[in-house]
């Protein structure tokens, strides 16, 4: 229950930051995708279920406020959260490499899928331009924000999981 409330607060705060503050800090119209960072982080920290849930609600917010079709971004983010959850078995809080690599792969996948379904199917075939001018700058900007945002998400997540681990030790 507490973890769900904290996740909802994170989703809302990062959505507001991404859609307001970082719009004014954009480089050539590119803003970091903080919701991808949150979705991927919850996925590999808490497992497939939490990655799927957080991804769905992050994507749904994007769909409601900015999307043409309800469910498009929710579906993509949901899959990204679920797939990141597959790596939860190899997650160690001390390791920063896995979260960074998964965040980069998640952002590239998100940009690529958005290109396919929003542009390629409409006959816009200039993928190299889209990759160099949209996907790659967003990945770099998101990765820089991940360096600052990931420790906060990790701290909150470990604080929430600590009481569970302590209560399991008492039962043994």
Compact overview of the structure:
By secondary structure, the chain is mainly α. It has helices at 2-24, 34-46, 48-66, 72-85, 97-118, 127-171.
Could you describe the 3D structure shown?
With 172 residues, this protein is an all-alpha fold. The chain has a single domain, classed as Arp2/3 complex 21 kDa subunit ARPC3. α1 crosses α3 and α3 packs antiparallel against α4.
CATH class (first level) name: Mainly Alpha
SSE string, helices as H and strands as E: HHHHHH
Poorly predicted regions are none
Domain count, please report it: 1
Specify the biggest β-sheet: none
- What oligomeric arrangement do these chains adopt? single chain
- Give the strand tally: 0
What would you call the shape?
A: globular
Tally the helices: what do you get? 6
CATH topology: Arp2/3 complex 21 kDa subunit ARPC3
- What distance lies between the first and last C-alpha atoms, to the nearest angstrom? 24 Å
Determine the mean pLDDT. Answer: 90
Helix content: over 70%
Q: Give me the secondary-structure category.
A: mainly alpha
- CATH architecture call: Orthogonal Bundle
Instruction: Please state roughly what percent of the residues sit in beta strands, choosing from under 5%, 5-15%, 15-25%, 25-35%, 35-45% or over 45%.
Output: under 5%
The Cα radius of gyration reads: 16 Å
């Amino acid at each position: 229950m507490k973890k769900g409330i904290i996740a909802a607060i994170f989703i809302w705060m990062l959505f507001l930051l991404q859609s307001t503050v970082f719009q004014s800090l954009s480089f050539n119209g590119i803003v970091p995708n903080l919701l991808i960072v949150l979705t991927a982080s919850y996925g590999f920290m808490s497992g497939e279920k939490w990655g799927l849930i957080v991804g769905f609600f992050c994507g749904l917010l994007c769909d409601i406020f900015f999307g043409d079709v309800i469910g498009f971004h929710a579906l993509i983010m949901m899959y990204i959260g679920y797939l990141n959850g597959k790596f939860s078995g190899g997650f160690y809080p001390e390791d920063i490499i896995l979260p960074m690599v998964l965040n980069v792969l998640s952002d590239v996948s998100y940009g690529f899928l958005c290109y396919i379904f929003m542009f390629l199917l409409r006959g816009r075939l200039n993928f190299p331009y889209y990759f160099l001018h949209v996907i790659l700058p967003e990945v770099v900007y998101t990765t820089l924000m991940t360096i600052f945002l990931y420790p906060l998400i990790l701290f909150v997540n470990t604080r929430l999981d600590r009481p569970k681990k302590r209560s399991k030790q008492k039962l043994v």
